Amino acid sequence: LRPALPLLLGLSLGCSLSLLRASWSHSAAEERCLAPGRPAPPGRGAPPEEAEERPGPGHEDFRPRIVPYYRDPNKPYKKVLRTRYIQTELGFHERLFVAVLTSKATLNTLAVAVNKTVAHHFPRLLYFTGLRSAKVPHGMVLVAHGDERPIWLMYETMNYIHQHFGSDYDWFYIMQDDTYAQAEQVKALVTHLSINQDVYLGRAEEFIGGDEQARYCHGGFGYLLSRSLLLKLHPHLDSCRNEILSVRPDEWLGRCIIDFLGITCVSELQGQHYHTYELAKNTEPEKEEEEEFQAALAVHPVSDVTLMYRLHKQFSRIQLYRAYQEIQDLQMQIRNLTALTPAGEAGVTWPVGINAPFLPKSRFEVISWDYFTEQHLFSCPDGSPKCELSGATKADIGEIIESAVEQLNRRYQPLLRFSKRQLLNGYRRFDPTRGMEYTLDLLLEAATQKGHSHVLAKRVSLVRPLSKVEIIPMPYVTEATRVQLVLPLTVQDLDFVANFLDMFAMNTLDTHDNALLTLLFIYHPYDAQRVGQVDVFAGVKAMVGELEKRYAEVKIPWISVKTEVPSQVKLMDIVSKKHPVDTLFFLASVWTEINMEFLNRCRMNTISNWQVFFPVHFQEFNPALVYRGEQTASSSTDFLRDGHFDRHSFAEACFYNSDYMTARTKLAADILDRDEVLESMEVFDVFLHYSGLHLFRAVEPGLVQKYTLRSCNPRLSEELYHRCVLSNLEGLASRSHLAMALFEQEQANST
């Protein structure tokens, strides 16, 4: 034991010291000093409820108390009303509101020029005038106060801004219609200012005969007010109107802010300068090269419309030059920094600053190139091998060729001057990570300074990068809209009606979804004559009767139609006349399995007078070819595995009755009395060619259809019949499943 003796002594000593230290700590905790005026803690014999203390600010052992939710069953339940937008509930404000002061005399001239030059750069812009003209210019939101007096106009404008926008915006920019403002610079200015201060920012001017320290912001150059200042100023506007006398509205507002709030106008705040430039008479904006002019946020006075447009053109050139210069500086910095990385200069992508090309991980992810010439495209949208260039595609290729020649001349001038003779080969592809890529083989004629020329072929590569993503404003819609399902039925569909009605009852009637159903019975003329003896839809009507008995509050109407060619447009004409104009239709097929998830997307993606929705349903493959006797996959994660999205089918559609009636009226005026044209059209074609609405067509995973071989009516148009046949063929199985079936068949034949 002698070798282990030090170890045993060390363990014993350590345990003894630990126990001794623990006893000291316990006694010190019991005998801690108390603050003056506080009662002593209860003794050991006190009951537990007396020993406990309420947690105070000095306690570190604070334990939160969980209050269970309890609702009095005797009181009626009141539904909590949520705000329309989440930013309203969270208290977010928009950034900038712009008010333009105009008059009846300049409304159709200078105000229109302001609207065309800078209005689309500001998030919200309104025009304020005393008296309005008979006709308001298009695209302008005008507020008329009914009095042309300048002070009254300013007073009413400030009241209107506070009442309607005071709680929605952080900054308010006031300008006149004879002012040119650089919209992007003004927006950049407010992003660098704190909203917690009372801001009165503009071109500071002295009062005539007033206090030398007080300043007001000149209205001709615009001025910026913060939301906090506007809220404090509003209670004093009436007093300012009655007590302050002034001729100029900007002086009146400045005196009001100084007298009641004690805030004077400043031209520099928080390190940000409000630069302005005063135009002289007969000024040529194109020749202005002063630094003060180029840095100006506002220019005044603008005497006529032409000068306003010339100023806008010149400042646009300045902004474009600065943007190109900044791009070059950033590219140079990227090159310098990339050289210090492990990859070295080889890590620099082309073009510098643009994302690297997409690298496929397998052959199925390879992005194919489309071949084109100056006259034809060899990858057409309709699947044909060759089609003529037209429209936007032709303009795109022409612009790319011109840009390639321009870049070559910019690089090699003045030594060489290139001119295009012919496009030998052209290739393009869309890379979702960077944009559209082009490779051009150009036949060029190169001319030297001495007049010698030579023809040569040169390959160039170009990229049209993806620009800044823009959020398109959409009208507000809700999920509370009632959906009217329309189900056309033929004799060939009788075997699938029972499953459709069962799914409809389970997913809509049992869940009390706001959806109704209308059946459309399509009788063949022969069956229509025998309907008194044998009704081919008698079984379906009996199923409907059973549903109405099971759900007493539900009524499922039906409409009977006699036709040999069930044109989708003609059938929709009959249904449209029997429903109100604000009805939201969902045109379904008998193989569709209705569910609440899809109905909500139908409501959200369909916007009256704005957008219609044509979902692409998921079509399951033929189980006989896919599984070949094996058990079908039942996992919820594999329900979209053995099938495909049927892009050839346009049977399902969501649209409002008012939008359909408007488009149908235009179609009737175009075809006159040629009703046979309707047999070659679908509802999709009506909206595509005869409405200005957005056609939203997207894959819909919530719309799944079981496999079935659809019957294609040969009496329809050639295009519709061809699409139906393609849908049946592509819905059989995938390439791998078909290949495996052929392989097994060949093996069986060989044996």
UniProtKB/TrEMBL annotation:
Membrane topology: Single-pass type II membrane protein
Signal peptide start and end residues: 1-22
Entry's Gene Ontology cellular component terms: Golgi cisterna membrane
EC nos: 2.4.1.-
GO molecular function terms noted in the UniProt entry: glucuronosyl-N-acetylgalactosaminyl-proteoglycan 4-beta-N-acetylgalactosaminyltransferase activity; N-acetylgalactosaminyl-proteoglycan 3-beta-glucuronosyltransferase activity
UniProt KW Signal keyword: yes
Keywords of this entry: Glycoprotein, Golgi apparatus, Membrane, Signal, Signal-anchor, Transferase, Transmembrane, Transmembrane helix
Pfam families listed in its UniProt record: CHGN (PF05679)
Record has Hydrolase as a keyword: no
Region (Disordered): 33-65
Compartment(s): Golgi apparatus, Golgi stack membrane
Composition skew (Basic and acidic residues), residue ranges: 53-64
The family this protein is said to belong to: Belongs to the chondroitin N-acetylgalactosaminyltransferase family.
Protein name: Hexosyltransferase
Species this protein is from: Ptilonorhynchus violaceus
Name of the coding gene: Chpf2
